[in-house]
Design brief:
The chain is an alpha/beta fold and 323 residues long. The chain is 27% helix and 26% strand. It is globular, with a radius of gyration of 19 Å.
């Protein structure tokens, strides 16, 4: 089968299209013919191996998993002898980040717990765009603080996958949304439901004197004190990603500096757990993936470069056109 592989850390130039052996499902796995897969920031981190501390998960000297891609959608073609949840022909999707990854290929093997039946109303490209980003957006809006109509929600890094999902979900709950991202994304963010927009290259939302009931931060770069200042009494700050220093601050110190009045926390992803609730939102028409561009498998390096440039609107999807 064809796959996009890498054997060393670096830029998208180290990615190459290769012919590799088709995987064979273990007893508790299914073999899936991949129709589409999507890129996430974790793919970029694993490709570049930066910060180097991330290599504790992906291999210190060289990558231990040669095929990236955690979010994938496709059709089951074979099942292991102990796999009973799915049958050949089932259309499925899911987040493979807890397992073998491997979505940027023609076939993948996955445990049944990593997959969910794809609704017929959802395209393979839409399904591939959802698992990580959609799941984290839903977790961020439901786990730490109940959102009520009229609540003020700020989403920093709103123009990417998590942010575009979070805006739509928060809007469906009646929140007043402030979206922070580059100016060229502002029209899109407003069309999704943001009532205010801020360009982070021109303004610092933590220094405007405004406070919010919930802050969801996808690209954290600031200190704990900055975030607390931007929270209302009873407010919650939830970090999803960002600079390593900010992640360590909130992860290690957030609980210590949190009070009943203002809480700071780091989101711990629960792969695939929120997908059932997300499917309901999708089928109710409350949320839809924003797909910036779809690339064929052989153009995956170009997709990675676009991701690295930081100007993606929503999600980038890799499609196996022959699927």
């Amino acid at each position: 089968m064809k796959a996009i592989i890498y054997t060393q850390y670096g830029s998208p130039d180290v990615l190459r299209l290769a012919e590799v052996k088709r995987p064979v499902p273990a007893d508790d796995e299914v073999l899936v013919k991949v129709h589409a897969a999507s890129l996430n920031s974790w793919d970029w981190d694993r490709l570049t191996g930066k910060p180097r501390i991330y290599r504790l998960l992906s291999g210190m000297g060289k990558p231990t998993l040669p095929i990236l891609g955690a979010d994938a959608a496709g059709v089951v073609v074979e099942t292991g002898v102990k796999a009973t949840k799915f049958k050949p022909g089932d259309e499925v999707f899911g987040d493979l980040s807890a397992g073998k990854w491997g979505g940027f290929a023609e076939y993948i093997c996955a445990k049944e717990t990593e997959l969910t039946i794809k609704p017929t109303s959802m395209t393979f490209e839409e399904a591939a765009a959802i698992p990580q980003a959609g799941g984290m957006a839903l977790q961020a809006l439901t786990e730490k603080r109940k959102i009520n109509a009229g609540d003020s929600v700020l989403i920093n890094g709103a123009g990417g996958g998590v942010g575009t999902f979070a805006i739509q979900i928060a809007a469906s709950l009646g929140a007043n949304i402030t979206a922070v991202d580059l100016s060229e994304k502002h029209a899109m963010l407003q069309s999704l439901g943001a009532s205010q927009v801020i360009d982070h290259t021109k303004e610092d939302f933590t220094k405007q004197g405004k406070q919010y009931d919930l802050i969801i931060d996808v690209i954290a770069t600031r200190s704990i004190s900055d975030y607390k200042r931007a929270l209302k009494p009873g407010g919650v700050y939830t970090m999803i990603g960002g600079h390593l220093g900010s992640i360590l601050q909130v992860g290690l110190l957030g609980g210590l500096v949190s009070t009943k009045e203002k809480r700071l926390s780091l989101l711990i992803q629960q792969p695939n757990k929120p997908l059932g609730a997300f499917i309901t939102l999708f089928e109710e028409g409350k949320v839809k993936p924003v797909i910036d561009k779809v690339y064929p498998l052989e153009k995956a390096p170009e997709a990675f470069q676009r991701l690295g440039d930081g100007k993606v609107r929503g999600k980038l999807v890799i499609s196996n056109q022959s699927a």
